[in-house]
TrEMBL record:
SMART domains: FAS1 (SM00554). PROSITE patterns: FAS1. GO terms for biological process: cell adhesion; extracellular matrix organization. GO terms for molecular function: cell adhesion molecule binding. Transmembrane segments: none annotated. It comes from the Eukaryota. This is Fatty acid synthase beta subunit fas1. One of its GO terms (cellular component) is extracellular matrix. Residues 1-137, 142-289 form the FAS1 domain. Gene3D superfamilies: FAS1 domain (2.30.180.10). It comes from Halocaridina rubra. InterPro entries: Adhesion/Biosynth-related, FAS1_dom_sf, FAS1_domain.
Amino acid sequence: DFERRVTELNLLDVFNMQGKNTFFIPVNQALNSLRGEQDLIDKQVIHGHIVPGKVLFTRTVQNPNDQSESLAFTDNLKVFISMENVTSGSEEGKTFYVKSNTVAGDVSHNKGTVIARIVKGNIPVKNGVVHLIDRPLMVVASSIMSYLQEEGGQLSRFHELMREHYPDLTHLLVVERDLTLFAPSNVAFDKVNAERLREVVLNKERLGKLLNLHIIKRRLTTDEIVDRSVHEIFQEETMSNGRKLYFAVNQPKAVVPVISLEGGGVNATVTTPDIAAKNGVIHIIDHILGIPSQTVYVKLSTDPML
């Protein structure tokens, strides 16, 4: 299906580029999810699936902030590509993702991050390497829930917690517009005491407060957080009854600034910022807010105010 769209746009030549290049190809199922919006895949989006002059293998992925310019990187449109390993363990058990980060958009292409899972990677070809992916890059065609519902995805434990113990919130994330979700990764769940988490889960009122602490009822991007953190500690109301999130920025002038936040006494770092969704934005964080999991020393060393 992707090949058909490339042919329609007369862009097959870019896949015949000589040299060492990296190609990310969405599988047929990835395009089925567009539901008739295949026109969203235009020339710039197709170029955004290619890293020219560089071969990226999953085994060489180390720092997820190492970004490469895509073929869609021009004077008016600036799209970076990066890869990330979100699991630990043997090479066979690892799950890899690719991210397109549009840092400067245009009329047809919004700023933000789109993240896709590599379903089959490291396919060697004459002019580089191919990775097959489960959704098209640069295209904001998914809802917040579609990212959470990804089977075996890096947010699957957070989704499971909501679905099984607080389904009201899953409904809200479908019907509400312009939300910001700070979603703890699966790894974040390993950092909390299981007994403490179980106590919260068994108390629906406490669980509701905890989950709502991760949601802001408007779109909040890292650009705004950086801008508003220059002269003061930026804070924003959450859906959890008057409780706020407090933000701080490290390396504000970097391509990917390091954003930290504090909520319910817990510090977290944004590991994947600005995942663009149709009804809002997702920031993946490395701790569950509201459940203490840090020692006094770690709290002192990670809280910018301390």
